[in-house]
Specification:
mainly alpha; Arc Repressor Mutant, subunit A; 3 domains; 3 strands; extended; HTH-type transcriptional regulator; DNA-binding; DNA-binding transcription factor activity
């Protein structure tokens, strides 16, 4: 839990938020705020604020127990769902706003404002982030086994790309294309 707290602070979250998430993830049963407060020795208000933030990230689930009016919290069981949620939330909170700002800056500087070099750099960055976003949109549609297989390929993908690059000109030549 301490490590998750440290990592959370490196990912732009507070330490307690990371520790609460680790506690909930490792717990075999959903926990209520009082359980979390006691386990981590943090204030009840800090736990409440952190739980709301984790809910905002769609990383914790609210559970109810029959006969108990308290709210209990847990994490999704499927690690792939957690991974997908984290990536989607980071994209929504960080990548999408960056694309919007770059788009705005490019459209404003296209009217003659600003430096051509800066404008070219912004267009280049916008293109890269746009390409990554398109790739992400394609990859997120994969089912878990295919996504795991894709991630398992690692550097082997470069061999495929190298082979495709070598075959590319031959294919075009065999079809009578000039390659231009």
């Amino acid at each position: 839990m301490l490590h998750f707290g440290e990592m959370g602070s490196r990912w732009g979250m507070n330490r307690t938020l990371g520790q609460i998430y680790a506690l909930l993830y490792a717990s075999p049963e959903p926990l209520c705020a009082e359980d979390i407060t006691a386990a981590l020795d943090v204030s009840r208000s800090n736990v409440s604020m952190s739980l709301r933030e984790l809910q905002g990230w769609n990383l914790v689930l609210l559970k109810h127990r029959p006969g108990d009016r308290r709210d209990f919290f847990t994490t999704p069981e499927d690690v792939w769902q957690i991974f997908r949620t984290l990536v989607e939330e980071r994209k929504r909170r960080e990548v999408d706003p960056t694309l919007a700002v770059l788009d705005d800056l490019i459209s404003r500087t296209a009217a003659g404002e600003g430096d051509r070099h800066a404008q070219a750099r912004m267009r280049e960055m916008y293109g890269l982030i746009g390409q990554l976003t398109t790739w992400y949109d394609d990859v997120r549609k994969l089912d878990n086994p295919r996504l795991a297989a894709l991630l398992g390929l690692g550097a082997k993908v470069t061999r495929f790309l190298d082979a495709a690059t070598r075959l590319g000109p031959r294919r075009r030549a065999s079809k009578g294309e000039t390659g231009q």
